Amino acid sequence: MSEDPATAVRLLAPTVRKTTTRLADGRELTYYDDSEPYLSGAATRRLDDPRPLPYRFADVVGDDGVARPVTAPQMRYDVLTGEWIPMATHRMNRTFLPPADANPFAPARPGAAYQDGEIPDTDYDVVVFENRFPSLVAVPGVPDEVASLDGEALWPTRPAAGRTEVICFDPNPTGSLAQVTPRRMRTVIEAWADRTLALSAVPGVEQVFCFENRGKEIGVTLHHPHGQIYAYPYLTPRTTQMLRQAVAHRHRTGGNLLRDVLEAELRSGRRVVAESDHWVAYVPAAARWPVEVHLAPRRDVPDLPALDEAERADLVGIYLRLLRAGDRFFAWPAGSEHEGEPITLPYISAWHQAPVREGREDLRLHLQLFSILRAPGKLKYLAGSESGMGAWVSDTTPERIADRYRQVLPAGVEERS
Amino acid sequence: MSEDPATAVRLLAPTVRKTTTRLADGRELTYYDDSEPYLSGAATRRLDDPRPLPYRFADVVGDDGVARPVTAPQMRYDVLTGEWIPMATHRMNRTFLPPADANPFAPARPGAAYQDGEIPDTDYDVVVFENRFPSLVAVPGVPDEVASLDGEALWPTRPAAGRTEVICFDPNPTGSLAQVTPRRMRTVIEAWADRTLALSAVPGVEQVFCFENRGKEIGVTLHHPHGQIYAYPYLTPRTTQMLRQAVAHRHRTGGNLLRDVLEAELRSGRRVVAESDHWVAYVPAAARWPVEVHLAPRRDVPDLPALDEAERADLVGIYLRLLRAGDRFFAWPAGSEHEGEPITLPYISAWHQAPVREGREDLRLHLQLFSILRAPGKLKYLAGSESGMGAWVSDTTPERIADRYRQVLPAGVEERS
């Protein structure tokens, strides 16, 4: 190990205590504890990672016994689309792999069957750590410089020098974010905001993306409730598109695109699903997914760290209500062999934040929550038109989606759910 | 029926006879026959559709017994991305539905169990017809005018006045395009070129897209070998991106982007998979899919109709070889319970053609053939980064894909395969 384990303890919001440490291979791990006695980081708890993980940037010893420096992950510029594509050209240390049926996100509880997970402490509330097998990672000593594949000007390459992190929402492996308590949801929001702030300060990071993939239908194999945080060293295609549209809108009208969209949705009202003091949930007028809802603050806010105390407190309830409505969105038809069985919605929950440097006046924080489930047991597949041409076709209408959300949206959430 | 069935017979290439007719509901259907005695359209064969299908643009009679005009499908402008989204706001006549286990693409062979398929004749070689449930269709009498949803300037709407067609590659329901004879593949190429020409002449059509989706992994439920042809009334996002990149490249270098990419791939040679007299197959330098190969003509050609006789004849063999290589690309590992079982590659085969009006000097015909299969039994899912941010991450490298293609590419194809 050439990095010193650094441990920091700091109080965030009234109810959240933050404790930072490092895993055995040098990755950063941060606990966000929300209840006294604070679970993690106390002197009596295990902070250090006992696993024999080699330092992740240590030289890789090949089959020939020769040690070679770790290769940094690369991205290539796709000249046909103008997009960067990170590629698995690198080979990190992969000597340690957990057993396939183990849950690496479980706390290291005494007596538990699996003691080699990612979280060294015996319990936690919310925890964030760097992904063990990252597609984006800055390797120390590798300069962030553009080169050319095969010496061709058409094919720039760059180190994929970003960060990918995992956030565990709850220690309960069979829970879900929809079912955490409001207090725990508030901790998750604090963790997202805190990580966004920290990652925005990392040199080379252009954009921070907090998101959750849920459900085997979108390839999630680890069912412990968790999300991910990507810090991209470039502007993503969707953000680039939205920024281009927002700038064009400002030049044409003088207005802010996302604020004007929100105001138009409020004027129409036809697709508004829920309103709270500080937030509005609506199905966008041109929603492309079979289930899609956006959640935006009433105030102009570029990103999660910019939310004030009242907005954060108010977000808890409306976000939980939207997630819980998702699990009531579809029902098996009467007479079907599955009648009455719950349908857990597979979904992607995507926090669109303004980039770190560009477009902070033009882009505005909003959540895009969507699903590929179009009916019980039926998925929307992204086939030729979507994947080949990027041309979406919707099988439903935003108005139908909004009507269904209004039917199934719970009125409120209780502290103990 | 208010449209007259029109029947036209015309010889295309040396070996293809074209016969156009209409189905009972007014949809156009065209046979492309490649062998004497020509199968379809002879005086002794059945050209007319005997099914009691109502005219597809006839008024819809509601549950209340009142007849109302068919609603034309709409698209909405997604102001956040600048993309048009066709939506299923319309309700076409859907009184006739084939039984779930029937194959509607089988010819109406005498004595066959299912006589209510889409193809009236008792046999065919290749056949193209309008999709019965189209997401894009021009409804007679509906003007192609922009309106505004809820009266808001932010939300333009337009009729989704394009065309979607189905192409059956072969009458054998258990076959595949990879396994047709070279003569049949040539007929398919002629049909694509002929439909591209015809659809390019339809008022309002901006772009014609010939493609094939294959495999249940991408949602294909009908296994009869078939593809689709979409005629979009707008430029698709991928084409818009490529055109933007090509124009910028021309301004910067004076060159044609797609030609320069081809020449750079030939100079490097590292990712070239196959070459023939008139075509080059290569894995692009920034390929984003687990399996991806592009096939481009050596000559500058905007679209399939612009291919000359030698290029069409030469395309047959190299395209068949690529498709057959796909079905040998993955193998179950030794010792696995599936060892030795063939792995049929799920794929999307996408013909990128220059748009009808714009960019015909800048864009250049090429095929993009790709798969979401990343290993035996393992799919690449488009989760948060791809679906939320449009940001692809590749788990492999273009060089590995090219190496594998070179291992499994057959040397040639025989007339009887």
Automatic annotation (TrEMBL), chains A, B:
<dbReference type="InterPro" id="IPR036265">
    <property type="entry name" value="HIT-like_sf"/>
</dbReference>
<protein>
    <recommendedName>
        <fullName>Galactose-1-phosphate uridylyltransferase</fullName>
        <ecNumber>2.7.7.12</ecNumber>
    </recommendedName>
</protein>
<dbReference type="Pfam" id="PF02744">
    <property type="entry name" value="GalP_UDP_tr_C"/>
</dbReference>
<keyword id="KW-0862">Zinc</keyword>
<feature type="domain" description="Galactose-1-phosphate uridyl transferase N-terminal">
    <location>
        <begin position="72"/>
        <end position="235"/>
    </location>
</feature>
<dbReference type="InterPro" id="IPR005850">
    <property type="entry name" value="GalP_Utransf_C"/>
</dbReference>
<feature type="domain" description="Galactose-1-phosphate uridyl transferase C-terminal">
    <location>
        <begin position="249"/>
        <end position="367"/>
    </location>
</feature>
<comment type="similarity">
    <text>Belongs to the galactose-1-phosphate uridylyltransferase type 1 family.</text>
</comment>
<dbReference type="Pfam" id="PF01087">
    <property type="entry name" value="GalP_UDP_transf"/>
</dbReference>
<keyword id="KW-0548">Nucleotidyltransferase</keyword>
<dbReference type="GO" id="GO:0005737">
    <property type="term" value="C:cytoplasm"/>
</dbReference>
<dbReference type="InterPro" id="IPR005849">
    <property type="entry name" value="GalP_Utransf_N"/>
</dbReference>
<dbReference type="GO" id="GO:0033499">
    <property type="term" value="P:galactose catabolic process via UDP-galactose, Leloir pathway"/>
</dbReference>
<dbReference type="GO" id="GO:0008108">
    <property type="term" value="F:UDP-glucose:hexose-1-phosphate uridylyltransferase activity"/>
</dbReference>
<keyword id="KW-0808">Transferase</keyword>
<keyword id="KW-0479">Metal-binding</keyword>
<feature type="active site" description="Tele-UMP-histidine intermediate">
    <location>
        <position position="226"/>
    </location>
</feature>
<keyword id="KW-0119">Carbohydrate metabolism</keyword>
<comment type="pathway">
    <text>Carbohydrate metabolism; galactose metabolism.</text>
</comment>
<dbReference type="InterPro" id="IPR019779">
    <property type="entry name" value="GalP_UDPtransf1_His-AS"/>
</dbReference>
<dbReference type="InterPro" id="IPR001937">
    <property type="entry name" value="GalP_UDPtransf1"/>
</dbReference>
<dbReference type="GO" id="GO:0008270">
    <property type="term" value="F:zinc ion binding"/>
</dbReference>
<keyword id="KW-0299">Galactose metabolism</keyword>
